[in-house]
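Recap slide: ADP-ribose diphosphatase, sequence and predicted structure.
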Amino acid sequence: MSKFEEKTIKTKEIFNGKIIKVSVDDVRLPNGETSIRELVKHQGAVAVIAVTEDKRFIMVEQYRKPLEKALVEVPAGKLEPNEAPEVTAIRELEEETGFTTEHLEYVTSFYTTPGFCDELIYLYYTDKLIPLTEEKALDEDEFLECQSYTMAELDDLIKRERIHDLKTMYAVQYLKLRGFD
């Protein structure tokens, strides 16, 4: 046992939904005391940094109910059970942007909010976009608009908090590290 590990004594499932599971765990702390942890389990997600031939960046705008506002984000979506992240990345790219690719480069993965949630997002990059000949259907409860932006426009969207989520902020920083300006 590591010096920071918390040993689960008891787990109580609170909610088991389509996207998340919520539980409350009683834990034994490293000092022997006990505490309670509220946990959100998530199956994981992918995000795709998609760059056009003319060095524009494909983003989608959609309403985020927890925030009560629309955000501009990189194309992304949740993993299906037993689905490889690369497969999810291609599916989401096609559904949300009307493009596909035969060249997908793994960038990294990261936990979004490890203080209470185990959601892991896999981030991919492509600059080899191929327009689809036939539009793919979005999920029945998904409404979004796809647009392309310059880096200056992305910077402005960040300043105005239209881009205001971790995965997209990370993606923009990654593009800058790759030399896009």
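The chain has two domains: 7-42, 45-177.
The chain is about 20% helix and 45% strand.
(End of recap.)
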